[in-house]
Write a structure and sequence with these properties.
With 311 residues, the chain is an all-alpha fold. It has helices at residues 18-54, 59-64, 73-85, 90-122, 128-140, 147-156, 164-170, 174-186, 190-198, 203-214, 216-232, 235-240, 249-258, 275-295, 297-305. The chain has a domain at 89-305: MetI-like (MetI-like fold), CATH 1.10.3720.
Length: 311
């Protein structure tokens, strides 16, 4: 009688499953991302919080007190009075000049950029592709590289020192043309425009009554970028405007900086400003851009996501 011997298989110790390893890796990745984002948030948020709190303190408290404790409303009011009393209200004039330059350049930009982008997207003409490539090349040229030739051109026609010497160059905005071109190429149905033409609309009516109402998001986006660029422009107004009476607020900040004894010891006197006042001037110079951004945020989001899908 034969005996059949069977050998029991050895049990291998179970290791961590693939799902467990993937879960651990995902948790470590999320933790790393959270740490990186926290560092970036703190890197940008801490200076902003310090700047806002500095406007509420006196010069002595700013230097010797805790940097992240708020000051008093009285010190904020004193800093406000010192800021707007500087050189008999020069700051008010600087803010008004910035508004004039930014709004003037914005109006010309919209009148020129949106129709130009529409024409490049919807019409076929000779050298169309070459014009688009030239627009992209001009976008890559730094603005400071164009200041000297622009200065020479405006000097020939006698515009140096006038508001137009700042408004006209800042209204040259090829990035707005490119944004409008992308939007009209991808987000406005050509069949809708063709139907308007069949109904008897002229090309101008097709643009103003059909295409332009559909382009509200991109108009808002171009307007915002143009306004921010014009408001924050420093070098062009600094070169074009020889008198401080025409300075925008960004250039005027240099006068405040030169009148701060902490940065310029020889400026101590009746017209000197203190560090909290300089911090308040910085906040005032940024506040209009923040207001415009918050007011137009819905249109900006729609404009930035436009063109993601092709009709």
């Amino acid at each position: 009688m034969s005996t059949v011997l069977t050998r029991r298989p050895q049990q291998v110790p179970a290791g961590p499953s693939k799902g467990h390893r993937a879960g651990a890796g995902g948790t470590a990745g999320r933790a790393l991302v959270a740490v990186v984002l926290t560092v970036f948030v703190l890197f940008f948020a801490i200076p902003i919080v310090w700047l806002l709190l500095a406007t509420t303190k006196s010069a002595h408290e700013l230097l010797v007190g805790s940097p992240f404790l708020p000051g008093t409303p009285g010190d904020l009011a004193a800093n406000w009075r010192q800021l707007f009393d500087f050189q008999d209200g020069a700051v008010t004039a600087w803010v008004g000049n910035s508004a004039l330059y930014a709004v003037g350049a914005l109006a010309i930009t919209l009148v020129a950029s949106i129709p130009a982008g529409y024409a490049m997207a919807m019409t076929d003409f000779r050298f169309r592709r070459s014009l688009l490539v030239l627009t992209l090349i001009v976008m890559l040229i730094p603005n400071t590289a164009l200041v000297l030739p622009i200065f020479l051109e405006l000097n020939v026609v006698g515009l140096i020192g006038s508001p137009l010497s700042v408004i006209l160059p800042m209204s040259f905005f090829p990035f707005g043309v490119y944004l409008a071109y992308i939007y009209f190429s991808t987000s406005v149905p050509r069949d809708l425009l063709a139907a308007a033409r069949i109904d008897g609309c002229s090309e101008l009516e097709v643009f103003t009554k059909v295409a332009l109402p559909l382009a509200t998001p991109i108009v808002a986006l171009v307007a915002f970028f143009s306004f921010v660029q014009s408001w924050n422009n420093f070098f062009l107004p600094f070169v074009m405007l020889p008198s401080s009476d025409g300075y925008p607020v960004q250039v005027g900040l240099t006068s405040l900086l030169a009148s701060t004894p902490a940065f310029n010891p020889s400026s101590a006197g009746a017209q000197s400003v203190q560090l909290p006042t300089l911090a308040l001037a910085t906040v005032v110079s940024v506040l209009p851009v923040l207001i415009v951004f918050v007011s137009a945020q819905r249109f900006l989001v729609a404009g930035m996501t436009a063109g993601g899908t092709k009709e």
